[in-house]
Amino acid sequence: SDIGSQKDRVLTEEEWLQKWELGNIGFHKEQGHPLLQKFLDVLLNGRSGLRIFFPLCGKAVEMKWLADMGHSVVGVEVSEQALREFFADHNLPYCEEPVPEISGAKKLQSTSGNISLYCCSIYDLSSSIVGKFDGVWDRGALVAVNPCDRQRYASLMITLMEKNSSYLLVTVSYDPNKHKGPPFYVPESEIKSLFG
Which residues does the annotation say bind S-adenosyl-L-methionine (predicted)? Predict the structure, then answer.
C-alpha cells in the first residue's frame, strides 16, 4: 500500500482554479459517468427524494440528471467558473447568495431549488451549514484531495452522512511512482482505514 512519491504532493487551490481557467479539465465527463448509471440502484436503494452530495463537484452533469429524477443535489467546488458553467451548460436559471457562516463563500441555487452549489473550500462546510445527506457521489474528490488531507476529508464526509446513507466512491488504480497525480492513487486498505 505504498503511495510512493505522492505522499507529500500538494496542489493549491490556485492550481485547481487555474485548471478551470485554462480549460485543463480532462477529469470532466460530458456524458456523465457510466459507473453512476451502473450503480445507481446502490446509491438510491429504492428510495426517492434523497439529498445527494457531490464533493468537489466541478460542473458534473450527473447533478442535473439526479435533480431531474426528483432528488435534491448539493455540491461544493472552489471554482466559481465551474459552477457558473454548470448552470449555463444546462440553461438553468439560478440565484446567488452569500453563505453567512463562511467568509467569502457563495451559494448558487437553481431557481427550482433542487440544486444548491457552494463555492468555497469543502473544509469550510459542516452539517450545520449544509445538513446531512442520504447519498454521496464521490467520483473525483477523494482522489483529488491532497494525500495529507485525506483523513480530514474522510472525517468531514462521515459527519455529513445520515445513518442509512450510501457512499459511491470511484478511485483509480495505477503505479503511483509512475504518475504524480492528481488523480491520486488511494489503495483499498487506506479507503478501509478512512471510512471503516
Answer: 16-27, 56, 77, 121-122, 139
In the chain, domain spans: 4-24+33-41+50-195
- Annotated binding-site residue? 56: yes
Print pLDDT tens along the chain (196 aa): 455 678 888 999 999 999 999 999 999 998 999 999 999 999 999 999 999 999 999 999 999 999 999 999 999 999 999 999 999 999 999 999 999 999 999 999 999 999 999 999 999 999 999 999 999 999 999 999 999 999 999 999 999 999 999 999 999 989 888 888 899 999 999 999 999 8
| Nearest-angstrom CA–CA distance, 16 and 67 | 26
- Is 23 within any annotated ligand binding site? yes
Q: Is 25 marked as binding a ligand?
A: yes
Topology annotation, domain 4-24+33-41+50-195: Rossmann fold (3.40.50)
Q: Is 188 annotated as a binding residue?
A: no
DSSP string, 7-46: TT----HHHHHHHHHTT--TT--TT--HHHHHTHHHHHTT
Asked whether residue 102 is marked as a ligand-binding residue, the answer is no
Asked if residue 122 belongs to a known ligand binding site, the reply is yes
